[in-house]
Amino acid sequence: MMPSMQSGRILALDYGRVRIGVAVCDPLGISTKAVGFIPRRSDDQAARTVSALARQERAQAIVIGLPLHAHGDAGANVAQVRAFVSKLQQHCPLTVHEVDERHSSQEAEEALRAEGRWPAAPGDVDAKAAAIILRRYLDGER
Predict the structure, then answer these.
(1) What is the CATH number of domain 9-141?
(2) So where are the chain's domains?
(3) Which residues, listed in sequence order, are joined to residue 14 by a DSSP beta bridge?
(4) Ramachandran assignment for 123, one of left (phi > 0), alpha (psi -120 to 50 degrees), beta (any other)
(5) Rounded to whole angstroms, how far apart are CA atoms 29 and 21?
(6) What sections of the chain are H helices per DSSP?
């Protein structure tokens, strides 16, 4: 069941072992923008950084990609993401929504190629994948 449509900015995350891609939407949830990445040294450090960024962006909620297997089952990486979400919720009072992120990195690479931004700088794929995850969430709410 999808939550009801929210007004306000939403922060999206593409969680990775090295970097966490970040994107935001406008307050009406119409457009998404890749804003960069957070270097991930530890989940605690990353959770504090995401919490500060959510305040800075005046986010009303957070969306995070859930790395499901191709056939839709959860694997070990899902447990890592959920452990991060638990850590994030210790630092940030916002609701965190999980979204299927399957193929988002490949879509991000294709989009960057189409934009003539390939080879991409470190973090560009992560940020673009976060924007794709956010778009999926927004489209799913409509």
Answers:
(1) 3.30.420.140
(2) 9-141
(3) 21
(4) left
(5) 19
(6) 43-56, 76-91, 104-114, 124-141
Say how far apart CA 10 and CA 23 lie, in whole Å: 8
Strands 19-25 and 9-14: antiparallel
- Sign of the CA dihedral 10, 14, 107, 75? negative
Q: Which pLDDT score is estimated for 33?
A: 96
Phi first, then psi: what are they for 101, rounded to 5°? -105, 10
pLDDT along the chain (142 residues), means of 10: 59 96 95 95 96 96 91 84 96 96 90 89 94 95 58
Rounded to whole angstroms, the Cα distance separating 103 from 69 reads 10
Residue 103 DSSP symbol: T
Please, which residues have CB within 8 angstroms of residue 14's CB and are 6 or more apart in sequence?
Answer: 20, 21, 22, 23, 64, 65, 101, 104, 105, 126, 127, 129, 130, 133
Question: Tokens 């960024």 map to which residue?
Answer: 53
Q: Report if pTM > 0.85.
A: yes
How many Å apart are CA 9 and CA 26, to the nearest integer? 5
